[in-house]
Design a protein that fits this description.
The complex is a heterodimer. Chain A folds into 2 domains: about 230 residues, 3-Layer(aba) Sandwich (Aspartate Aminotransferase, domain 2); about 120 residues, Aspartate Aminotransferase, domain 1 (Alpha-Beta Complex). Chain A is about 40% helix and about 15% strand. Chain A has 13 helices and 13 strands. Chain A has a 7-stranded mixed β-sheet, sandwiched between helices. A 4-stranded antiparallel β-sheet of chain A has the order 9-10-13-12, covered by helices on one side. In chain A, strands 1-11 form a two-stranded parallel sheet. In chain A, strand 3, helix 5 and strand 4 form a beta-alpha-beta unit. In chain A, helix 1 packs antiparallel against helix 8. Chain A is globular, with a radius of gyration of 21 Å. By secondary structure, chain B is of the alpha+beta class. Chain B has one domain: Sufe protein. Chain: A (Alpha-Beta Complex), CATH 3.90.1010. The longest helix of chain B is centred in the C-terminal third of the chain and has 20 residues. Chain B is globular and about 40 Å long. Chain B starts with a helix and ends with a helix. The interface between A and B is medium-sized, with 23 and 25 residues. Chain B: This is Fe-S cluster assembly scaffold protein NifU. Chain A: This is Cysteine desulfurase NifS.
């Protein structure tokens, strides 16, 4: 059976060019970047080059990039590193932010969660009104991982700047898919991850604007400019940097390709299936995200039927989560829990083709029809 | 999360789907844990379930447990069917993932509600 991967917001396949670039750093250039001998210097050169590449992709300076183990660690470092005080964030952040905020609340920090509108958009005015004398950090994600809504980051950044407050954004989903410039967007801290952009897992970065005071989480040998002790993962960093440079290189063609497929998928589903709603913002969304709500059916059942046809997607349904809670993001949009049940996220990637989307459009109406025929909610 | 082969079979090819327009008993139960809903319809003759259908809005486990519950109940006396427990349904499916055990409540409870509806008539 052919298999079609439409879950690129979860993770991506590592690009073959990236794998090729990484290979020598396992067996030949394997030195410790802290060592003084030639093996160490070779590793250090690769590390420095990687740092420059990732910095370039963000409009940052090389010494403002700290490599981490991924997006979750970058988010933890940004939030915990700022120190105690009041934090403003949004209600639709990734659990890496929300659960870190919960932890910080237990330690005595105060956190304000600004709401979003029905399309998942934060109102910068709400962020500004939440600012108090104790506010030390504003953290609002660039693009949402479930619905793909892109936030007005530049506006929020300039509000933070005007008030002299640090501004962090989780750009794990947007990196490589929308333009990012930390200068233009007034960003002080920004999290990115390698495995969402066809790089290896286990590596990411935090951009820390020069002069921003952040305390490290990991203490040890003083690696990463003293911000993250631990021998650097050179093959991972080299792979991440290669993936970032490919993302920059292919930005326009990727955007065109993904937008075309996403529009084809959304229009095709709307044409062939009744009672479908697009979750999130109609235009201010990632080019690869189609989050669709199918009335009267439950998302996990839909997911499993698609899986039996070789198609991989994800769902916000309560049934699919260990906690049995429906997606906090879809709840924050004001969608009723029973409607959240039927939400499916399709996230497209560089390798997807028109014929794959055609196949999805062929099998999906039948699956939805079958589930609706057995649903006591349909036709009421 | 791994579903057993039996769960996948009953999910992919559910038995006894549908409605019985002149049912002797109808039971609908919503699952407060996750929002799933199952309706069971029964036809009863001489104290025995002679026909049974169901409809489910829910996950693979909810559909499979409803399908299995109807299969187990068909031909049983009302007393025998009332004695069927949630665990009987899960066991007949070679078990359910822990997080999905509540789904077997839905199927058994809807069956019991249909029987009680029949007995109340």
């Amino acid at each position: 059976m052919k298999r079609i991967y439409l879950d690129h917001a979860a993770t991506t396949a590592v690009d073959r060019e990236v794998v090729q670039t990484m290979m020598p750093y396992f067996t030949e250039t394997y030195g410790n970047a802290s060592s003084l001998h030639s093996f160490g210097r070779d590793a250090k050169n690769a590390l420095d080059a990687g740092r420059r590449t990732v910095a370039d992709a963000l409009g940052a300076q090389a010494n403002e990039i700290i490599f981490t183990s991924g997006g979750t660690e970058s988010d933890n470092l940004a939030l915990k590193g700022v120190g105690k005080g009041h934090i403003i964030t949004s209600s639709i952040e990734h659990p890496a932010i929300l659960n870190t905020c919960k932890y910080l609340t237990d330690l005595g920090c105060e956190v304000t969660y600004v709401p979003v509108d029905s399309e998942g958009m934060v109102d910068p005015g709400d962020v500004e009104s939440a600012i108090t004398d104790d506010t030390v950090l504003i953290s609002v994600m660039h693009a949402n991982n479930e619905i793909g809504t892109i936030q007005p980051i530049s506006e929020i950044g300039s509000i933070a700047k005007d008030h002299g407050i640090l501004f962090h954004t989780d750009a794990v989903q947007s990196f490589g898919k929308t333009e990012i410039d930390v200068q233009k967007m007034n960003i002080d801290l920004l999290s990115v991850s390698s495995h969402k952009i066809y790089g290896p897992k286990g590596v990411g970065a935090l951009y820390i604007r020069k002069g921003a005071k952040i305390k490290p989480l990991m203490h040890g040998g003083g690696h990463e400019l003293g911000m993250r002790a631990s021998t650097e993962n050179i093959p991972g960093i080299v792979g991440f940097a290669k993936a970032a440079s490919l993302a920059t290189e292919r930005f326009e063609s990727d955007t065109r390709h993904l937008t075309g497929l996403k529009d084809m998928l959304i229009a095709g589903v709307m044409d062939s299936i009744d009672d479908v709603i697009l979750n999130g913002h109609p235009t201010e969304r990632l080019p690869n995200n189609a989050n669709l709500r199918f009335a009267f059916v439950e998302g996990e059942s839909l997911l499993m039927h698609l899986d039996m046809k070789g198609i991989a997607v994800s769902t916000g349904s309560a049934c699919s989560s260990a906690s049995l809670d429906p997606s906090h993001v879809l709840l924050a949009l004001g969608i009723a829990p029973e409607d959240i049940h039927g939400s499916i996220r399709f996230t497209l990637g560089r390798g997807n083709t028109e014929s794959e989307i055609k196949y999805v459009l062929e099998v999906l109406p039948e699956i939805v029809g079958k589930l609706r025929a057995m649903s006591p909610l349909a036709g009421r | 999360m791994d579903y057993s082969e039996k769960v996948m079979d009953h999910f992919a090819n559910p038995r006894n789907i549908g409605e019985i327009p002149d049912a002797d008993g109808v039971g609908t139960v919503g699952n407060p844990a996750c929002g799933d809903t199952t309706t069971v319809y029964i036809k009863v003759s001489d104290g025995r379930i002679t026909d049974i259908k169901f409809k489910t809005f829910g996950c693979a486990a909810a559909i499979a447990t409803a399908s299995m519950a109807t299969e187990l109940a068909l031909g049983k006396t009302l007393d025998e069917a009332l004695a069927m427990s949630r665990n009987d349904v899960a066991d007949a499916l070679d078990g359910l993932p822990d997080v999905k055990m509540h789904c077997s409540n839905l199927a058994a409870d809807a069956l019991h509600a249909a029987i009680e509806d029949c007995l109340a008539k």
